[in-house]
Design brief:
The chain is mainly α. The protein contains twelve helices and no strands.
Length: about 250
């Protein structure tokens, strides 16, 4: 979910911290942004993994005016209000911090953050879906790679049929332009590693077709679980990060 005016907040931890600080400000005589509160409340309540960690009074109070009526009756002093809000948000923030500061995810997020073409947006959507929507996360994994390849090819003026080209062919074109195709190298170890990269991309494309949510299912569909989604998202993120770093290095 894209929150208007808060596009600079890159993670759910940042969004939760912003929401907490907004409520503290409102509870201690300041004025909060009601539009942002409503959007953030909807964002967290729509996420099954996070909705149980949201304070109950956030669920009940639909806007900042309702929250103000609640908090002024609950506690008279500013200090008690501050402590109450921070204590109530502690569980959510601790959970998000532990989930979003894992070294691989943090590193990939840094590499994708400033890259155009919807790559970072797709990465964040995949992270959000990993624990609650495995099929959706697997589908977004393909989108991460597809977006990275298309952006690089567009930037280099390389033509492709966006309506028909498969991910494997899209990656082949991108790898060739970045000198990442196995046949472009003589050292066996580089051939082996780059061949492995191609195999990962092909596998992610096949996994999306088999387990993602982009196609209809038969009578006895195979259901992926969170570990499959975790693998797909991290592999896609790592490959997209590698492509982008190589593209940026070649530019300079």
């Amino acid at each position: 979910m894209m929150i208007l005016g808060l596009e600079h907040l890159d993670s759910d931890f940042d969004r939760a911290e912003y929401m907490q600080n907004m409520l503290v400000k409102r509870a201690t005589g300041g004025v909060g942004n009601n539009f942002h509160y409503v959007q953030l409340r909807e964002h967290f309540l729509s996420n099954l993994a996070l909705s149980n960690l949201i304070p109950r009074w956030v669920k009940v109070n639909r806007d900042l005016d309702q929250f103000w009526q609640f908090i002024k009756q609950e506690y008279r002093s500013y200090a008690k209000r501050r402590n109450f809000i921070r204590d109530e948000f502690n569980g959510l923030l601790e959970f998000l911090e532990s989930k979003q500061t894992l070294p691989p995810e943090k590193t990939i997020s840094e590499h994708l953050k400033n890259f155009a073409g919807g790559v970072h947006f797709a990465w964040n959507k995949a992270l959000e879906r990993k624990t609650t929507d495995s099929e959706g996360a697997i589908t977004m994994s393909r989108t991460i790679l597809e977006s990275a390849c298309k952006h690089i090819l567009d930037a280099k003026g390389i033509q492709y049929d966006s309506s028909k080209i498969e991910l494997s062919e899209l990656y082949k074109k991108t790898a060739k332009e970045l000198r990442l195709a196995p046949e472009q190298h003589n050292e066996q170890i580089f051939k082996q590693i780059l061949g492995g990269c191609s195999a990962v991309v092909n596998g992610l494309g096949a996994l999306r077709n088999k387990l993602g949510d982009a196609h209809g299912k038969g009578k006895s569909p195979v259901k992926p679980n969170s570990r499959h989604a975790d693998l797909a998202v991290n592999l896609a993120g790592s490959m997209a990060s590698f492509l982008i770093q190589t593209y940026e290095a070649n530019k300079t």
